[in-house]
Amino acid sequence: MSANQLAVTIDDISADNAPAIFVAGGLGRFIDAVKDEVCAEVPDLTTRKGRERIASLSATVSKRKASVEKPGRDYLRHIKSLPKVVEDELREFVNAMNTLRDEVRKPLTDWEAAEQARKDKHVDAIQSIKDFAIFEDATTAERVSYIISIVEMVEINNTWEEFLPEAAQVKDETLAKLRALLAERTQYEAEQAELTRLRLEKEARDKKDNEDRIAREAAEQATREAEAKALSDREAEARRVSDEKAAAEKRESDLRLQAAEAERQAEQAKREKVEAEQKAERDRLQGIEDQKKAVEQARLEEQARADAAADEILRQAAAREADKAHKARINRAALDAFIAGGMTEECAKQAVTLIAQRKIPAIAITY
Question: What's the angle, vertex CA 52, arms to CA 48 and CA 57, rounded to 5?
Fold first, then answer.
């Protein structure tokens, strides 16, 4: 026990000396002092004055107790309030230091975000080149040639920065795939055009052969009819050999007329044959012209589909870029909210990444 503690009496206890008094065993001396004060005399219970003295001494004990208990309780309340003061002070200190840390690191953070955006732009551009070689269904050589021209216009220069080798390689690989597909489709379309030409030629030949057959059969029928008629006339002439000369001359005249008619019919058959051949040629030429028109119409329609497909590819690339930027903004806002809530930036980044990847049950980021 120090000299200062010995010099302090019950009446001297205050907030200033309380830390030195209210310690283990620090109040024993005050108990002893009170005992010495109230037990130094033995009042006479048989007298009124003695009894009043005992009551006075008991009240003195209560007074001395209050003199120690009240400053002790005040000191205890003060001690209990200290953790909250320390906690508040530490919280303000930590928040201030976190803010200062973020302000100091902000140039690096901004640089890292810009660097990531720059890299993402190159990666998306390279993926766009790869997408040109993806076809969900069969296409035409003309459309493939159009896509090749688009890819060939992609410039490979220093604007690709460190992605220049990869961009050049992807462009070469994409062009190689497209050119192989172009060769395949060109050969296929040439084969199909040749098959169409051969089919049309065969149809034209078959039609002409049929028309020739019809004309030939008509001529043969006319000849047979003429021969049958001549045979009938000769038989009639034999039967009428004994008839009068006038009847014979009449029969000869009839035969000449019949011969002329047969010749006329033969000429008519020839003319019909020539007309049939001319009509077949006209039909063949018209078929070729119709085929050319059909091929040209198909080419124009395919060109329109190819243009629409290219526009759709560009639209999808722009949509992906916008979606990526949108998600980046939302993720950045979530990251800032975590950091503002007291998390370190590394923990906040990991939390945002895990939630975005849907690895945290029942928690999701709404884009």
Answer: 150
